[in-house]
Structure formats: structure tokens, C-alpha cells
Write a structure and sequence with these properties.
alpha/beta; two-stranded parallel sheet; 340 residues
């Protein structure tokens, strides 16, 4: 196939391009020109989808894979030049489109987020960051894609993506921290569930779905069995040869010390308490239903293989690139306080 990939040089997009090239498809990349050296042999069109998509005019592709749209006006710009010249559109969305993550086993028909018109306008003119309303904007992007490619659009509501080149630093924090050994602060109960998916697994499935022109909405995370944070950390310990010891710290203690979930404490979504002391039972966060995607062929490589690749990548990158997680000094202070 002739495939246009919007983005394609950072994390998931990079994995999708690699998979498409492996399958001998003809690839064109359209992005702002960042990381052009990653795929020097591919056709690369440099442009900004917020401002000028004229390079896409009078071109035809069998499929588009959109890895990076954050707001509906970006979809509108692409549709204005490609609506009638592309057969199939894949949009990488997010499980963040859902109104909340309270119940377990959320399926694709669960309630979505919404956004007020004035806030949407603020995003479009650039006075508000799209990240502030990330989930609601992704939901609007899905609607805009479906409007322009009705019945020919694949919407992928992705969960936590992991693997090399993960610029979020979430899983890399844990791999690196476990490798360092010693007493390791783990938020909440050790048997709390966790969901994540290797970008290579989602990339393989995305290309398969595009090849077959499959349409519809799919939750895509993993694995296809319950994984706990303790099991994840045990694999990290085995891969890195660490002597790490897990110290499970209660959520109220972390809230009392104003530890930020997800960023300062990666992979932690509180199950029981909010910063204000109110109940926030987000127990469905890592219990999203992926049955629909699995029935179409979504599969998962061994988690040990993913951890090994992340660990090797961690060895190569600079410390200044690391953006998530507690500092060792702060972790040590918290552990000392916890044991008083």
C-alpha cells in the first residue's frame, strides 16, 4: 500500500513506520521535520498541519495513519486536502477520551469527555494548550475523522505505551530505579493491576488493520491477562539483575506528602484518596476492556522482552533526558519517614 503517516519519527509513530517498511509498504511522512535523520530513505514532506498542508494537495494514498492530532481543527485541515484521495484513515486516539476510569472493564461504548465551545476556540487560536483538555479534544478528533471518512476510519484508543524511545519516561523510570537496587518505594498495594502495551505490538496490529481496511473504535492496551505492579517490578529485577526490595507505601501517606501521581510517581493512579482527602476510586484505570481488539488479532510479546529493550535503551541515553519520577533524595526521605 501507499501509506501517508502523519508524525512518525518519535515513539509510536516510529514503531509504526518500522513495521510498515518491514511489510514492504510505500511510506510518506508528513511532519515538522524533527528527527528527519531517523528514516533518511523515506519520502518526507515537511510542514505544519496547524498552518499549511498544501504539500498534500493533488496526492493520493491508500491509507493515512495519524499519530499526532490533538485538536479537531488539525483533522479538518488534513481532510480539506485528502478527503477524496484517501481510502482509509487510522487515528491514534487515547483511553483518555472516557469521562472517567471508575468502573472496571470499560468498553468502547462508555461515556466520553466533552469540552465547552469557548475552551475549544482557545485551543484553536493557541491561547490554551491542547494538553489541558487532552481527552475531550481526542474525542472531538475521532468525531471529525468519522465525519470525513464515515465507515472507513479506524479509531485506536490507546492505553499506556511502552518501549524504547519512550519520551514520557514512565516505564523507563521504574526499569532504571529497579536496576539501581536497594529499598524501592512502590505506591499503593503491590497487587494493584497495571496495563501497558509495547509500541511494537500496537504498531503490528495497526498495520494489519489498515491493510485489511478495518474500521471502528477499539481500546488497545494490554496484556491479555491481569498484570500487577509487583509482577512488573519482579520482571524488571530479573532483567537488570537487581537486589531491589519493594516497600509498599499507602496512598494517604503519599497524598499527605503531596506526591504527584503519574508524573512524580509514574504508573500510579490513586485508587482510594485524592489530595483533598475525598474518595477518587479510579479503579478502572488499568482494567480497560480490550476484548474487541484481541478478537481482531491484537497480540502481545513477552513483557520480559519489552523490559530488556527498555533497559538497553536506558543505558544509552543521557540523564538529562529523563523527565519522570522521584529523585533518589526525595525517595529516601519518604522511606525514612514511612518507617518512623
Amino acid at each position: 500500500m501507499k501509506i501517508l503517516i502523519l508524525g512518525g519519527t518519535r515513539f509510536l509513530g516510529r514503531a509504526i513506520v518500522e513495521e510498515a517498511v518491514k511489510r514492504k509498504h510505500e511510506i510518506t511522512l508528513f511532519n515538522r521535520g524533527t528527527n528527519k535523520e531517523v528514516f533518511p530513505d523515506l519520502e518526507q514532506l515537511v510542514g505544519n498541519r496547524d498552518q499549511d498542508v498544501s504539500l498534500l494537495k493533488k496526492r493520493n494514498w491508500d491509507a493515512v495513519i495519524d499519530t499526532c492530532a490533538f485538536a479537531p481543527h488539525q483533522i479538518k485541515n488534513i481532510a480539506a486536502v485528502l478527503r477524496d484521495s484517501v481510502e482509509h484513515y487510522t487515528f491514534i486516539s487515547s483511553i483518555s477520551v472516557y469521562r472517567d476510569w471508575i468502573p472496571p472493564n470499560i468498553t468502547e461504548d462508555y461515556h466520553l469527555q466533552s469540552i465547552q465551545l469557548d475552551k475549544l476556540k482557545a485551543v484553536e487560536v493557541g491561547t490554551v494548550s491542547p494538553y489541558e483538555y487532552y481527552g475531550a479534544l481526542k474525542a472531538l478528533c475521532e468525531a471529525e475523522v468519522e465525519k470525513n471518512w464515515p465507515g472507513h476510519a479506524l479509531h485506536i484508543r490507546a492505553g499506556l505505551l511502552v518501549g524504547p524511545y519512550d519520551y514520557s519516561g514512565r516505564l523507563p523510570y521504574w526499569v532504571e530505579r529497579v536496576a539501581q537496587g536497594g529499598r524501592i518505594l512502590v505506591p499503593g498495594r503491590l497487587d494493584r493491576p497495571i496495563q501497558l502495551i509495547d509500541v511494537k505490538d500496537i504498531a503490528s496490529w495497526v498495520i494489519h488493520m489498515a491493510e485489511n481496511r478495518n474500521a471502528g473504535v477499539y481500546n488497545v492496551t494490554g496484556p491479555n491477562n491481569q498484570l500487577t505492579i509487583e509482577e512488573l517490578l519482579n520482571i524488571c529485577r530479573a532483567v537488570t539483575g537487581s537486589d531491589g526490595e519493594w516497600v509498599s507505601v499507602d496512598e494517604p501517606f503519599l497524598w499527605a506528602h503531596k506526591i504527584e501521581p503519574w508524573t512524580e510517581m509514574p504508573l500510579w493512579i490513586p485508587e482510594d484518596f485524592s489530595l483533598e482527602g475525598e474518595k477518587a476510586p479510579w479503579k478502572g484505570t488499568f482494567a480497560i476492556s480490550i476484548d474487541k481488539a484481541v478478537r481482531t488479532g491484537l497480540s502481545f510479546r513477552p513483557l520480559k522482552e519489552t523490559i530488556q529493550e527498555v533497559y538497553h535503551w536506558e543505558r544509552e541515553r543521557h540523564h538529562s533526558d529523563k523527565v519522570a519520577g522521584l529523585s533518589r533524595d526525595k525517595e529516601c526521605a519518604l522511606l525514612n519517614e514511612w518507617h518512623k
